[in-house]
Specification:
By secondary structure, this protein is α+β, with helices and mostly antiparallel strands. Helices cover about 25% and strands about 5% of the residues. The chain is flat.
Length: about 240
């Protein structure tokens, strides 16, 4: 084994194209009746968990209804994925190829750093260019897919929800009683152990810091792993701080 080879170079979780998701969606090119149909179907799917196959059927039914009313009227897409793309509902994610043998992760197919085979196992990462029906694939399709979106991008989209930032920062003003534990901020880890690089307390809550240290919103993310069983009884906690 070549110990000088860095398996994370290139880093598969930071493609050279970056993450360029659009913050706004332009609906001017779409007729209002189509936007209404897409919004209705997407709402049924997200709010009431209407299955995708049922959403596709509903879009098709709407298309037949519009054709029966006016053959010249523009009909909607018949796939939920396409209608959600119009609305900008689905976040842009990367589909990273995974080695079927060693499960190592590689940069996406569109990346200039992409690999066709695993650098360790020499096993192919993508399906053949031609399908079993004799058609050429429009894009390279990984054998094993790993959908990926950085945590930073996920947090960015969550903070766009009105009022969520105030909820995340509400712990500053919550009444506390010594010896009474109601949430993580009553514990010793947040109050004494989590430090910034400069040595100051990350979740500092001094009287003059009711809007956060230096006026910043500081977020801790707990990561839970339910498949790992330690050899000795122990408790493991991983907290990412931003």
């Amino acid at each position: 084994m070549d110990l000088d080879v860095d398996e994370d170079d290139p880093d598969p979780f930071m493609p050279d194209e970056g993450f360029s998701s659009s913050d706004t969606q332009n609906f001017t090119d779409f007729p209002p009746h189509l936007i209404t149909i897409y919004a209705l179907v997407s709402w049924l799917h997200l709010q009431f968990h209407l299955p995708r196959v049922a959403c596709n059927a509903l879009l098709t039914i709407f298309g037949f209804i519009l054709i029966s009313l006016s053959p010249a009227m523009e009909v909607p897409f018949v796939m939920l994925q396409s209608s959600n793309r119009v609305l900008g509902v689905d976040k842009d994610i990367f589909t990273l190829p995974v080695c079927p043998t060693c499960r190592d992760v590689f940069p996406p197919a569109m990346s200039t750093k992409s690999h066709d085979t695993c650098t360790t196992c020499a096993v192919g990462l993508f399906l053949p260019d031609m399908t079993k029906w004799g058609n050429f694939r429009a894009t390279k399709m990984p054998i094993v897919k790993y959908p990926y979106l950085p945590l930073s991008e996920q947090i960015k989209s969550l903070l766009k929800i009105p009022g969520l930032e105030a909820v995340l920062d509400g712990w500053h003003s919550k009444p506390r009683t010594v010896g009474e534990y109601t949430d993580i901020f009553d514990g010793d880890v947040c109050q004494t152990k989590l430090k910034c690089p400069d040595g100051k307390l990350f979740f500092s809550n001094l009287p003059h810091e009711k809007n956060g240290p230096d006026g910043e919103l500081r977020i801790g993310v707990n990561l839970g792993v339910d498949w790992y069983v330690p050899l000795v009884p122990a408790t493991f906690t991983c907290i990412l701080i931003f």
